[in-house]
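Final paragraph of the annual report: two paired records, presented back to back.
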Amino acid sequence: MVSDKYSFSSRTDSANIPRRFEEYGKFCGLSPTNARILSLLSEEMVGMVKAILPEFDAVIHAQNENNRFEIILSVDAIIKSKEYDELLKASDGKNSAFGKGLLGKIGDMFVTWAVNLNDNPAPMMSYTGMEMGSGISMVNGFEEWSMKMYLENLEEGRKPEVPDDGLERSIIVNLADDCKMSVKSSSVVMTVVKSFEETGFTSKK
C-alpha cells in the first residue's frame, strides 16, 4: 500500500506531514505506538531538510509491503554557488549544520550531494569521504549510501561518532532499520526503512 504524496518546500509549511504519516500507519494496521514512530521518522526527515537547505522543493511519501515501511523523500535543491561557502562553514567537519553524531554526518552528505548536483555532477563516492563512503554500493544502476552498511563496515571495535554528551538523539539513527541515500536524475533521495511485527495490509505494486 502506497500513501499519498505530499509536496513541501522552503517556502511552505510542512507541519501537517507527520500527522499524515501517523494516519497512514494506523490505516495500514499499525498500533498507535508504531504509527507514532512513522510520524516521528517523517518529522525528522522533513526537519533535516528544512534545517540545512536554504531553498528546495521536495516530495515525501511512504509505502508498505509486509509491514516493511519505507518513507521516501525526494529533494530538488536550489543552491547557488555563493550559498555553498556558507553551508560549508556550517558543516566544517566538526560541527554539522544539523548537529553532531551520525545524523549530522548524513545531513552533511545531503548538502554536499545537493550542491554537486547543481554545480559539479559526479559519482557520490568522489565527494562523500572515505569513512562515510564505506556505506556506498551500486543498486539498480545507482550509487546508494546505506546507514546499515556503513555501521556494519566500521572497523572492528569502533563505534559511530556521537555527540559530546555520548547520546545520539536522532530518531532515525535509533529507531530506523536503515537510512538510504541516493542521487537520481536531479534529486537527492532519502529512504528511511522501518519494519514492524504486526498484521496489516501490504503494498500492491
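The closing record of the year follows.
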Amino acid sequence: MIWTHWKGVFSVTDDELRKIYYPIAESWKLIREFCDATGTPVECFKVQEQAKDIFEKAGKTKFAEEIIAATVNEIDRIMRENGEKEV
C-alpha cells in the first residue's frame, strides 16, 4: 500500500499494516466481550491477561501499547458504570 503525505510518499508493507490492524481489531473484540462486565476480580483479571496477550502478539509496539491502554481504560469505565447500575 502506498500513502501520500505532505512529507512525501510512503510505502507500507502488509506486515506493517498487520501491526496496526491487529491491536485495533483485538481491542474492539475485547471491548465487545466485556461490555456487560461489572468489574468482578475475575473479569478484571481476564481483561488484564487478554490485553497482555494482545500486546505481545502485536509485537510490543508503542502503537499497540497506546491502543491497548486506551482499551483497558475504556473497559474499566464501562465496568464502573455497569457496577453502579447494579447497586
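The helical segments are 14-33, 41-57, 62-86. This concludes the annual technical report; the extension proposal builds directly on these records.
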